[in-house]
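Hi F.,

I've been meaning to write this up properly since the lab meeting, where we talked about keeping a consistent format for the predictions we share between groups. The idea is simple: the sequence comes first, exactly as it goes in, then the structure tokens exactly as they come out, then a line or two of notes. No screenshots and no reformatting. I'm using this chain as the first example so we have something concrete to point to.
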Amino acid sequence: MNHAGIRLEALMAYGSKEAVIQNLKDAGCNPEMIECCLACLDSGQKEKMLQRLKQHRKALLEQLHQKQKQIDCLDYLVFQIGQCSFLPER
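Output, unedited:
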């Protein structure tokens, strides 16, 4: 089945192209990624768009894990400093 020229609104229950664009922005997509996604849909390359979105999700998840590691390190430092009795209070 040829999906060339699929209307964005027909694929998604957003109701408008602007709503899809806003969702992509809210998801942290840069302007280039948004244009690529829209071009993929306009040319019927839904699978390519889905692959790009999966890659973006993976990158966001990696950032989240890195931030969690940083928080864990900070929590450990705060805990260790709290346990020290030789540091003067000010």
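Notes:
The longest helix spans residues 46-83.
The two ends are 73 Å apart (CA to CA).

If this format works for you, I'll send the rest the same way.

G.
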